[in-house]
Amino acid sequence: MSIAAALKEQITDTGPLTIAAFMECCNTHYYVENTPFGTEGDFITAPEISQVFGELIGIWCVQQWQALGAPSALHLVECGPGRGTLMHDLLRGTQHISGFHQSLTIHLVENSPTLQEEQRTLLQGTDIPIQWHDSIDSIPPGPALIVANEFFDALPTHQFQYTKDRWQERSVTYDEGQFCFTLSQPFISIPEDLPPVEEGAILEISPAREAVIQCCAHHLAEHGGAALIIDYGYTAPPLVDTLQAVRQHRYHPVLEAPGAADLTTHVDFTALKNVVEQAGCRAYGTITQADFLTQMGIELRMQQLAQQASPQQKQALAAALKRLTHPEQMGTLFRCLAITNMDMPAPYAFTE
Ligand code: SAH
Description:
Strand content: 25-35%
Order of helices and strands: HEHHHEHHEHEEEEEEHEEEEEHEHHHE
Distance between the termini: 54 Å
Bound molecules: S-adenosyl-L-homocysteine
Number of helices: 12
Helix content: 25-40%
Shape: globular
Structural class: alpha/beta
Radius of gyration: 21 Å
Largest sheet: 8 strands, mixed
Mean pLDDT: 96
Number of strands: 16
């Protein structure tokens, strides 16, 4: 049965689906059946733009490993590794750091069997042990470094619309031969202390994201370590609809062709920080992706690469630098949140 037929059947049987349920169903299908990444695919992520992205995250990880006292056993966890490009560049960029690779076990949290296979192929050259996990809660005990780029945005989000003096859940139904939005009674509770809002305001709440970040923070609080979360998002809820679908590098109507486009919402970093602090960890940032990459030395690294590059490659390097750091491209919309256990120093790039 096609995903559209399955969704239709579910709506007929049990009524409208929350946006969160719709996202979960569509994205699970999408990441198994499609070619998400690269020029041939639907969208390009930072690690696919330049090898420097993963290399600089590698340096950040080495600094955190040293801040932990260079333990001889460390879990290096990546959530939603896509093609595995970030991990591949991270490992190549850190191979000369004495003792670092020897300490690592890699854990890739990935629920798409198709992408697990791509990751296995790309990373087959490494002799570091790699374990795959469907979800973050099976990471074994021990100090950990956790990285996630464009992972949280794909996790299911509930949406509520303020209509006639109350919040109603934005949902998906099927009517007159097509999927369409409707409003329902809220399926989950909404905070009571919200400031007044205007008619039509949209509130986004993602218990799925909060559960993942809570699991990460509990692990770091108990076993030590740090996390780096990079995603597009906000610190003050914009109270607008940020649900979007991207297909072949263009925005695509959200309800058209379910499962054929990546569905995301912007990440509410303040909600994540609150969970981190309640779980007994420190949260740093957010800072912009441009600030993070600049602090980590992106310009110097690009210059190094340019020294041996052809004129055409030099142009490509300059274009990648701009794409990753320019305010009108990924530089300010993408933000970085760092998490550490209580007694670690402030992580590099996140100091005032
Ligand atoms: N980090 C990569 C890919 C981002 S796309 C990059 O920057 O290129 C999102 C990734 O998260 C994909 O690998 C997708 O399969 C994975 N993913 C999405 N939802 C997931 C979930 N609930 N559990 C585990 N992995 C998930």
